[in-house]
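Technical note accompanying the year-one report. For the benefit of new consortium partners, we illustrate the data format agreed upon in the data management plan: each record pairs a sequence with a structure-token string. No post-processing was applied to the example shown here.
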Amino acid sequence: MDDSSPSENAGQPRSWLDRIAQLLGGEPRNREDLIETLETAQERGLFDSTALAMMEGVLELHDLRARDIMIPRGQMDVIELDAPFEDILRQVLASGHSRYPVIGEDRDEVVGILLVKDLLRALPLKGNGQDEAEHDAPFDITPHLRPVLFVPESKRVDALLAELRASRNHMTVVIDEYGGVAGLITIEDILEQIVGNIEDEYDVEEDVHIRAAGQDRYIIHALTPIEEFNETVGAHLPDTDFDTVGGLVTHTLGHLPQKDERIELDGFEFRVVSADSRRLHRLRVTRIQPAEGQEEG
């Protein structure tokens, strides 16, 4: 047992155990001190670097605002209130999201959130023995909409996460100072600030450049060599000026691609699945023209 008095230890540096003990004891600290304590604990093997990054991510949420992580209005996949049922299904199948903001006549007004599972419940109502007139009647999406949670651009992300959990919402629409739609945020967008990119069914294993995702559909790494892509899917993308598919797509667009941005090349649609502020990561590729030797239809 150490019988030394506080005065005897006053000039000695505090150990990481002392720091954590004082932290848990409620001693006021600034963020720099807290991060230094966590880094020291990680260096001593108390937890790994992944756990440290997650803790730092949690701390950073307080400084982030909704505007910092939202998907901008121009990149939102939205459904129009008066869209035909078949058009809605086509859009859902093409984009692959589970939730969609629904806009009214005023395209800057979100009137509700459509969950794909709610849309699927409407499927039996179409063409199940109804008379022809009722079957051809315009589809009314309104009964299937969920309420919208609106938040201002300035809302802190940590407070937004708490609100989403409390209200059991997975999506919120961000509005600007004039009340117009600025963008949207999903709960996954917030969690990715803590844990990093969340892998999903669109992700490709690091050692696999191209993965089939249905007939004539693929998920590919942006770093996929153009030659490999051409050989695998029967494409004819030019490879004289660029080595990778991502490089060709970026050059053709003329700017760094953003999530859900689309472009057509050589009979294929390329949609950005993931990208950050520095580079393109993954693309979803869909053949929009039949391969050579195949007939349309």
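Partners are asked to follow this layout when depositing records. Residues 16-61 form one domain.
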